[in-house]
Design a protein that fits this description.
six-stranded parallel beta sheet; alpha/beta; 17 helices; single chain
Length: about 450
């Protein structure tokens, strides 16, 4: 099929590349000339395992093209995916200006029937706004080209996006047109050969599904963090509790690992947007507000533990930070717990020595030339002359470290584990003072 993906951010680039991998002709469009230049030179502007090789392969074979020329992309494509950002507005609602701007561009340049697909995470009712925006432009042009607007939300996990795209759990398509449903089914057929994973539903239900999925996962995380805090106060071990409830098939083990809060580009933004949608419909989102409140406080838990150990004034103390990205396998630090933790420690007078396998440059961009923050070349270098270690992101390379080496490099054998990676009994036997979450 002839496809255009407008927006070459995380979602757009992964989506367009995976469609090309399945044999479709894909034109990826962006108004960022620098980004397109990087892509046309064989690079990628984001960090995602396996993506760069796939981009290069499909570009070389002619199925994947990158351009700033939206007119050409619209005229040559049958299906147009809108994959631009929907950042939170000041009131927490999703900002649709970029989505609607693309809708205007499509309507301005379309020359035949088109299927317009909302791939971006957008509030319920956005497809109607895209429809109205495009129809107005077509009327102003004095043309009567037909088009359909579809909701096809993405469910990609950063760090595993290629696998999620190539082998999806489900493909949600919101449309009221049997013709469009058939075309979208044909487009996604190669991604679900072993079983039918396509779910056809109404447009508004599809839009709501995306927000509900992310809000449910965020709820599980915040709930388990709340239980972890209660376990600490009552002398229970949240890891044992987790196993006890996870063995119940109605609950399962996914997303019930306690820690220091969720971050990233999706969960925080989507929970806020869903709360705003509730307010706009005069419905109190009590559970969602509690989820958000618990998550914000959970990001401060590790700093509170540090202050309880050393006192509220941390002047003269240096802390090694292992992990900066909001989760492993990505350099994304949007809403990352590390940002709250580092700011909290620095505000209390401490100095930071940070290390992350891939997010160092992003951290330097975020924190700037802060004299209280330095960046180590390795996780062990960060420990040198530091008072304690804070494990913030559970990268694989941090899971089984050399504890004897850690003990030698630190001024004192103290570890604050924000992800419950280590065995409390083992570290006690090794002579460490060890703090974790809910244990």
């Amino acid at each position: 099929m002839k496809l255009a993906v407008i927006g070459t951010g995380y979602v757009g680039l992964v989506t367009g590349t995976c469609f090309a991998e399945m044999g479709n002709d894909v034109i990826c469009v962006d108004n960022d000339h620098h980004k397109i230049e990087i892509l046309n030179n064989g690079g990628i502007p984001i960090w995602e395992p396996g993506l760069e090789d796939m981009v290069q392969r499909n570009s070389k074979q002619g199925r994947l093209k990158f351009t700033t020329d939206i007119k050409n992309a619209v005229s040559k494509s049958d299906i147009l995916f809108i994959a631009v950002g929907t950042p939170p507005d000041e009131d927490g609602s999703a900002d649709l200006q970029y989505v609607l701007s693309v809708a205007k561009d499509i309507a301005t340049h379309m020359n035949s029937y088109k299927i317009v697909v909302d791939k971006s995470t957008v509030p319920v009712g956005t497809a109607d706004k895209v429809q109205a925006t495009m129809q107005k432009i077509l009327e102003e042009r004095g043309v009567d080209y037909k088009f359909d607007v579809v909701s096809n939300p993405e469910f990609l996990k950063e760090g595993d996006a290629i696998n999620d795209s190539m082998k999806p759990d489900r493909v949600v398509v919101g449309t009221n047109s049997p013709k469009v449903a058939e075309i979208m089914s044909e487009l996604y057929a190669p991604f679900a050969r072993s079983q039918d994973k396509l779910l056809i539903m109404s447009v508004r239900s599809a839009e709501m599904t995306k927000y509900t999925a992310n809000a449910m996962l965020a709820t599980k995380i915040s709930f388990m963090n709340e239980i972890a805090n209660l376990c600490e106060l009552m002398g229970a071990d949240v890891n044992e509790v987790r196993k006890g409830i996870g063995s119940d098939r109605r609950i399962g083990y996914y997303f019930i690992y306690p820690g220091i809060g969720y971050g990233g580009s999706c969960f925080p933004k989507d929970v806020k947007a869903l709360i705003k949608m509730s307010e706009q419909n005069h419905f109190p989102a009590k559970v969602l507000k509690a989820v958000e409140e618990r998550n914000e406080s959970q990001k401060r838990v590790l700093v509170e533990k540090v202050k309880k150990h050393y006192g509220s004034n941390l002047k003269g103390k240096t802390f090694a930070i292992w992990g900066l990205s909001f989760k492993p396998k990505t350099d994304d630090m949007r809403e990352a717990s590390s940002r709250v933790i580092i700011k909290g420690l620095v505000k209390a007078g401490a100095k930071i020595k940070a290390y992350d396998p891939v997010a160092m440059e992003e951290a330097k961009r975020i924190f700037g030339d802060n004299p209280n923050i330095t960046y180590a070349k390795s996780n062990y270098e960060a420990l040198e002359n530091s008072d304690a270690l804070l494990l913030v992101t559970e990268w694989n390379q941090f899971r089984r470290p050399d504890f004897n080496k850690i003990k030698t490099l630190l001024k004192e054998p103290v570890i604050f584990d924000g992800r419950n990676q280590y065995d409390p009994a083992e570290l006690k036997n090794r002579g460490f003072t060890y703090y974790s979450i809910g244990r």
